[in-house]
Amino acid sequence: GYMFAHADLAPNAGVNPGEIAGNGRDDDGNGYVDDVRGWDFDRNDGTVYDGTADDHGTHVAGTIGAAGNNGTGVVGVCRSVRLSNAKFLGRNGGTTANAIRAVDYFTDLKTRHGLNLVATNNSWGGGGFSQGLQDAIARANAAGILFVAAAGNSTVNCDTGSCFPAEYQVPNVIAVASITSTGAISSFSNFGARTIHLGAPGSGIWSTVPGRGGASSYASYSGTSMATPHVAGAAALYASRNPGATAAQIRTAILNAATPTTSLAGRTITGGRLNVAGS
Ligand code: CA
Predict the structure, then answer these.
(1) Could you give the CA distance from residue 102 to residue 87 in angstroms, rounded to a whole number?
(2) What is the pLDDT of residues 57-94, one digit of tens each?
(3) How many Å lie between the centroid of ligand 1 and the Cα of residue 149?
(4) Measured between alpha carbons, how far is 80 from 240 in angstroms, rounded to an integer?
(5) Measured in angstroms, how far is the CA atom of residue 30 from the centroid of ligand 1?
(6) Helical H runs in the chain?
(7) Phi/psi zone of residue 275: left (φ > 0), alpha (ψ -120 to 50 degrees), beta?
(8) How far is the CA of 262 from the centre of ligand 1 (A)?
(9) Residues with CB under 5 A from ligand 1 (ion)
(10) pLDDT, tens digit, 9 for 90 and up, residues 46-58
């Protein structure tokens, strides 16, 4: 979940145009009542923001698309993005079944309700291989939605270890490792010459978080969760500049523009880090 009312996120907080807030009806007929800001699959309601425990999602959202030119806080990679939310992790984690529902939620909004959904940001991991989740990612792929995923934070080689969902072999997946401000691979970051595509900044990332009493605050977090939204934001930015681009074209542009680094050579498919200016 993310704090859509955060002062630096509110200008880019998207709404489901087919849904009327608070009328107790499933206006767009997608199976979810009053899913104006998205859906909370963990609690099965429309309140995608449940308080300060949603700091992780709020931080990620800011890296994708915090507002620019508003004289405060931070700016996201794509300042013209619109953010939606499918929350399936709560205080006690979540289930793969709800992850599948969350992925399919966006696929349905694009295919049956016409929302221009470019990418999902998947700053989460865990569980083993799931045929059901792989099938859901494949349905997103068929709908032209990129699936940008965090490599994970266990210093694991994903070519041999388990790094789901990052390592699903579906054409819309972009798996992201973390680098530091000097370009080194972050000490915690998973990697994989055959499974992880590129690196992006994930150490000491300053972004939006909920403050006490509903305040809009900021904090520095580290993780491949923080690297991943740089790439998801890049996908949105590319789509905004190239409105007719397909998911495959956006993905190719991002991967082809990666700047080679010694830190990521032999540890990622591209051997490089995200370079938004190059794509
Ligand atoms: Ca609905």
Answers:
(1) 7
(2) 999 999 999 999 999 999 999 999 999 999 999 888 99
(3) 26
(4) 8
(5) 5
(6) 55-65, 96-111, 131-142, 224-241, 247-256
(7) beta
(8) 48
(9) 19, 26, 28, 30, 32, 35
(10) 999 999 999 999 9
DSSP 8-23: TTGGGB---TT--TTS
From the number of C-beta atoms within 10 Å of its C-beta (0-12, 13-18, 19+), residue 214 rates as exposed
Q: What are the counts of helices (DSSP H) followed by strands (DSSP E) for the chain? A: 5, 10
> Which residues have C-beta within 8 Å of that of residue 139, sequence separation ≥ 6?
103, 104, 107
What would the pLDDT profile of 154-181 be if each residue is shown by its tens digit?
A: 999 999 999 999 999 999 999 999 999 9
**For strand 216-221 and strand 205-210, is the pairing parallel, antiparallel, or unpaired?**
antiparallel
The Cα–Cα gap between 79 and 204 comes to 21
Q: What does the DSSP 8-state code read for residue 175? A: E
- How many CB atoms neighbour CB 110 within 10 A? 16
d(CA 90, CA 1): 9
Distance in Å, CA 217 to ligand 1 centroid: 31
Which residues form the catalytic set?
Answer: 27, 56, 225
- Tell me, in angstroms, the distance from the centre of ligand 1 to residue 92's CA: 26
Which pTM was predicted? 0.98
The residues of the chain scoring below 50 in pLDDT are none
